[in-house]
Amino acid sequence: MSQSHPQPVDLIIEARWVVPVEPHAVVLEDHAVAVDGDRIVALLPIADARAAYAPRERVELTEHALIPGLVNSHTHNPMTLLRGLADDLPLMVWLQQHIWPAEAKVIGPEFVRDGVELAVAEMLRGGTTCANENYFFPDVIGATYRKLGFRAVVGLPVIEFPTAWAKTQDEYFERAGEVHDSFLGDSLLTTAFVPHAPYTVSDESFERIRVLADQLDIPIHLHTHETAQEVEDERAKSGLRPFQRLQKLGLVNDRLVAVHMTQLTEGEIAACAAAGVSVVHCPESNLKLASGFCPAEKLRAAGVNVAIGTDGCASNNDLDMFGEMRTAALLAKAVAGDAAAFDAAFALRAATLNGARATGLEAKIGSIEVGKQADFAAVRLSDLETQPMFHVISQLVYATGRHQVSDVWIAGVRKLAGRELVGMDTGAILARTRAWRERIASA
Ligand SMILES: [Zn+2]
């Protein structure tokens, strides 16, 4: 192209800094991203972009870092409506005596829809553009994400007891197939199997999941090795550690997205690396439930794909991926006894590109690269809390609060503009959330 005939594109975002994540640990100063439709078509210095492109819209972010939208690699977003319902309790007491009974009283399509909507509003205001979802009523979950234009991996649940979603194992599998088919070809939605955990899913169901996940070419996303007790209970029952049982069932491969993993032997870490397993580290949920410490640095050093998730709001209690990145980096250093462990650039990668890889979306999202989807978060770094500026990536991980996220795009569409949600009615979301508070508290 010549300077006299600049190429028309939909959008140019000019930023003081662009952190593309790939190549690793790079910060580009005074760069612009050109977007056409839902895709990134160029990443180049601002002066060059002005000569080469005629954008329909130009956004100037003179005090901001533009980063890939954050990927929350493990969450239960309908549970955002249970935020703060039961705190300061051990995992099994929390789950069996508080969360499951409360859920049983309110769970249904409306609860799921309103919980996801509240979560999407919170995620967008925190720079998150993709959620790896794990909850019942995936049909409603997917429809809600689709309506709101939010990217998600919709989990297809399997658990060995009847729930409001399905009564029998056959019904879980039938409904999983229906939901998967209904979202085929959707530009923002994909699916994964989400068997709850080894202690709630039978060998027979795991075998069906393995075969179907291969046929559908989708990930298998499950909680495992969350606590030492879980590992002990499985050993007492089957004589195997949960991970060994998954190995025996043929599930330890590059489809496996293993969440928590606080109890791991050196052999299991090596097996994860060799098999291409992704591990989702949920440090704040693990800390709050005193579940144990994921050896995140050992996993990273072994070459395991480590991603980051918040877990649900009932055990975190927020969907703040900036907070989670910071906690992940700090906790990994303490657990490893090494201040150089899990550095800031790796934490940002874990919260973006590694999440994309875990969810099978590595070719589409997770970094600012030509050809990828235009999913971005702009972070205003001129606030006194993030000054002076020596190192952008360090500042993003160790000093930035999610309130500094100013603008967000998903597939080239602006979802947050100057911290205002675009196309979402904040007042209506709050009113519905307060109504759920009354129903849940009086249940
Ligand atoms: Zn979870």
Which terms summarize this structure?
single chain, 443 residues, alpha/beta, Urease, subunit C, domain 1, TIM Barrel, 2 domains, 8-stranded mixed β-sheet, 4-stranded parallel β-sheet, 16 helices, 16 strands, binds zinc ion
SSE blueprint:
Blueprint: E1 7-18, E2 28-36, E3 39-45, H1 46-52, E4 53-68, E5 70-75, H2 91-106, H3 109-124, E6 128-133, H4 138-148, E7 151-158, H5 169-182, E8 189-195, H6 203-216, E9 220-224, H7 228-238, H8 242-248, E10 256-260, H9 266-275, E11 278-281, H10 283-288, H11 296-302, E12 305-308, H12 321-336, H13 344-350, H14 353-358, E13 376-380, H15 392-398, E14 405-410, E15 413-417, E16 420-421, H16 426-441
Parallel strand pairs: 1-4, 5-6, 6-7, 7-8, 9-10, 10-11, 11-12
Antiparallel strand pairs: 1-2, 2-3, 4-13, 13-14, 14-15, 15-16
Helix pairs in contact: 3-4, 3-16, 12-13, 13-15
The protein binds zinc ion (ZN).
The site of zinc ion (ZN) has 6 residues, from loops.
Protein name: N-ethylammeline chlorohydrolase
Keywords: Hydrolase, Metal-binding, Zinc
Family: Belongs to the metallo-dependent hydrolases superfamily. ATZ/TRZ family.
